Amino acid sequence: MTTNQTRRALRFVTSAAALLIGIMVPGVASAQFDTSWTNPTIGNWSIESNWSGGVPDEFDDVDIANGGIANVASPGAVYADLTVGGITGPAFAGGNGSLLVSNGGVLSHSIYRNVSVGGNGFVGNVTVAGPGSQFLANGYLLAAGTLTVENGGLLSSVSGESGNAPGDVASTTVTGLGSRWNIPASTPATATLQVGYAGSASLTVANGGAVNNGASAVLGLLAGSSGTATVTGLGSAWNNVGYLQVGSPFNGGAGTVNVTNQGVVRAGSLRVSQFGVVNVNNGSSSVAGLVLQGMPAAMPTGGSYGALRIGDASDGRMTATGGAHVRTASTAIGVAAGRTGAAVISDPGSTWTNVDDIFVGSAGAGALEIRNGATVSNFRAHVGFNGNASGSVLVTDPGSSWTGGGSFFIGNGGSGMLQVLNGATATTAGNSYLGFSTFSQGSATVGGMGSTWTTANTLAIGGNLTDAGGPFASTLRIENGGRVNANETILYNTGVLELNNIATLNSPLLSKGGVIRTYGNTSHADNVTLDAGGLSITTGAVDTTAVFSGVLSGPGALTKSGLGPTGALRLTGANTYAGLTTIKTGALLVDGSVTGATQVNAGGTLGGSGVVGTVDVQSGGAVAPGSSVGTLTTGDMILRGGGMYALELGSEGVGVAGTDWDSLAVNGTLDFSSLSPANRCTLSLKTLGASGAAGSLTTWQSDVDHTWSNIMTASAGYGRDFDESHFAIDVSGFQNPVQGKFHLLDNGGGIDLFYDAYEVAEGVLLTNLDEPVRGATPIGNNPNPLDPPEGPGAPWYWGAQQFINDGATHTLTAIKARVGGGSTAPAPQVVAELRADDGGTIGALLTTFTAPDMTGDLEVREFVPDSLVTLDPSAKYWFTLGSANPGEGTFFWQYANSNVWGGAGAFANYADSAESGSPWTYRGVDFPYFLEVDVATASGDFNGDNQVDGEDLAAWAMGFGQFDGVGAPAGLADGDANGDLIVDGGDFLVWQQQLGGGLQAIAANAPVPEPATSLLLISAVVGIRHRSGPKSRILVDE
């Protein structure tokens, strides 16, 4: 006998006992306990003739089982126990029946009794229709028939059990805005609503209707039962305070929940059992159709589980918060192509257990978020399962975790993404794959302190342990304190590993042609194996260093690239990989060792204080020993033209190479064979301050010679004779003042850097000149606060300085002088001229100059000639300065460090510079005076082959008589050697003077081919001392 039959038999026995008591006790009649509906059609509940025992009162048991319809159309109808269709007597006699509550009618009872609708083969129907219509069944509601609540009607009961006997087919529908079925609060873990208890039953909530259950609900409880719930339409809701169990975990009952078209199902927790399935297709992936909000009591555990499908027939979303529990066999989120599914689980105590696999993006688009301390577990995880699917999993916040008993497939056949952030964890007991199949793509980011992804076996990036991925790159990014643990990590040729700031990959790494990108300062401590595909490491853009302290081994090659020129990769291990190391951009700092060969391409730098194999420094590449000062030891090295040796100097030459300045120690041949005066290697000098950073040397003296020994050594020599002219010395990073010149000298066992304090840089010509002069004709006698030797009130004159050209022809490009301190109201009308020498006096005007602004402090400023001037070999010239607004505009021309005059001469007036000057005795040798005369050197090498020969004469002859009318120099190939815009005999004389010779470098760091810009340094010291010796190249006109 079923439970329902037991209840009904008990009720029958109770009624029979009451009848017996009524016989035995006078005044108690059987009619007051039982009245039956007799109207075979439809009738009013409140009409006595429709009942066998009169209109029921609150103590009457009532049955409606004659095929008629009892209509409650007004308030006040009551009963004690009610049967609508079903068994009505001890002989199991009965019939069909219907109850209609409408037009504001109210049917209720106050005694905790039962309502039975249908059963045992009889049909029962209950309808509550219309606003104000209420059926207040304050007891058990047992339905084997049909319940309908519509158009604003209200049904309430202590519990609800539909399909309560085998063979029953029951249905309940709550439809229409305002329509409700309320089951009041009870113990949350009590299943007060059972859809398909032992038979089949359905629950439909539609069009804004609502079912409000104060406890838990079960669909398909006993063996052979089935329960289906459908919630559909905007505003439609099934609300459960307790858990929702779909299907029976032990007895084989089947359950189904369908949420469609903006409907919503709410519960404290969810269990989907073996023959259960939940389909969330509410039409939105941003508004939840399944809401789990936590519950104070646990739901049943054990047994088997069923499926949860979110986003199948339509988009769908599930949220689980506040300690909610979700238990399923498997879950698919984003099930069908073109559909989107989303699931969010959040808060401490919220757990989601998937006994089997979870699919996030099965054939559609899926998203899973695990937040704020929630946990999710499953066997395997497929994120982006099918070819066109996409999936994403976010695990974030402390305490949040995602755990797998099998493998994680991030990008299984489509695209997948995993993010583990802000202290969350992800753990799998199997393998992890980023981009598993040929056309899949996977990415993962592990970021934030405490964030950890742990793979028990192999983490494969861009492959599946058998094959590499296809055309799409898969990426693992670790950043800002994130940590990834794996027994082994394989980086395929479509795989990218990104390390940003504090990033830890706690795993040996095997590279099969993969790429590592580093951002910020980061490190990797485990060993790296390079197979035949090799490894490419790209460092960040600005002043960042990635340190690899493990051993790099294997047959593969290493390529160092960079997002910018200052990103560095530092290798500190004893690396044994056999392939070529190629440095493309940024620096490779070897502080351990690299046994293979290294090629430094344009934009790359090789540095560190370790040991490397053979090195080839290409044009545009650089070698820079140490990280600050240090010694880099190499095998054979080739320095090619256009390459650079970046030399850091930590002292003025006092100390030891490799400790106080950089040293390059070559265990083999240092090959200079590709160098020439036209194809030079640059030696770039950089001084370091006391802190070790770029700055000025603390004890530097510019008037003292200095030597930095053994900046390069080679155990097997240089492959050819060393030639200083094959090197250009760049002093732009030498921050101390320099008055002499730097040389490279072969000391027999290495190369020294030598500073000659009294030699002017090559191509800069020193002239020994007379004193400065002033104009002979004064203009005005103004008080002179500087107290000249002539006494106060002496006249102010214009000034002039002579200089003598060297033995070559030059084109004047500028004259530089230390001037400034000019007045502003009015400003001086500066007059600057270049004059020829006329027997020791100022001669004809050659050009005027465009003067610089004279305001501001005294500093070196440039005067640009207004017309072309060619300086003849060994000729003397005069540079004159004055002001054209006498007595008003003033400026200063500093020509000495006089302890009497304060180091400045004032020129406030201007006189005709055609008048000759007279010697100006000005403190003599103690106070040297300087000008810079910038020139373009004339050259007879018209075809630019670095030789002056017959081919250049042929070029001159072809261009003879040509004139560049637009004012631009005609160019070397046209035969215009001196830049006077015409090819003539003067150019021939230049060729003749240089015939048979090569070109000497104009300056140590000047570009080739010529002409190059040089500086004429002019000294007006009377009796100045000049150094002589084997290294001196001073050109002096005595």
UniProtKB/TrEMBL annotation:
PROSITE patterns: EF_HAND_1 (PS00018). The keyword Methyltransferase does not apply. Keywords: Hydrolase, Protease, Signal. GO terms for biological process: polysaccharide catabolic process; proteolysis. One of its GO terms (molecular function) is peptidase activity. Its EC number is 3.4.21.-. The keyword Hydrolase applies. SUPFAM superfamilies: Pectin lyase-like. This is Extracellular serine protease. It comes from Lacipirellula limnantheis.
